[in-house]
Design a protein that fits this description.
Elements: H1 9-17, H2 21-30, E1 41-46, E2 49-55, E3 60-65, H3 72-87, E4 91-96, H4 97-102, H5 104-116
Parallel strand pairs: 3-4
Antiparallel strand pairs: 1-2, 2-3
Length: about 120
């Protein structure tokens, strides 16, 4: 079950215009069904959150985290957010910016493994 929040439509559009370098790189590899012919969305509103990437077919959320996600309040926020997504039947993969920028091949491999499983 998806919960679409109309209030987040405009903020998600703004986020699409301002992707981080890591988000741009990953998006260049998964957009237009490049990965196994499966559709991904970017900056998708789900409930009260906007997730970085979402694949409805695989019920998969992909989050790209910067260094701010290491702070205690961000860790707690991410935990609550992940629990909410899990309650919707979604699984979440998290990568930090350095992983994406430094080893995009491995990141894609992990995503493909998740899509296969």
């Amino acid at each position: 079950m998806e919960i679409y929040n109309r209030k987040l439509k405009q903020p998600s559009r703004e986020l699409r215009k301002d992707l981080t370098e890591a988000e741009k790189l990953l998006w260049s590899k998964i957009r237009l069904k490049q990965l196994r012919g499966i559709l991904f969305y970017r900056q998708k509103p789900l409930g009260e959150y906007i997730v970085d990437f979402y694949c409805p077919k695989a019920k998969l959320v992909i989050e790209i985290d910067g260094s701010q996600h290491n702070k205690q309040d961000a860790v707690e926020y991410d935990k609550v957010r992940s629990e909410f997504l899990k309650s919707m039947g979604l699984s979440t993969l998290r990568f930090n910016n350095n992983n994406v920028l430094g080893n995009i091949e491995r990141v894609i491999q992990i995503i493909e493994e998740k899509l296969s499983g």
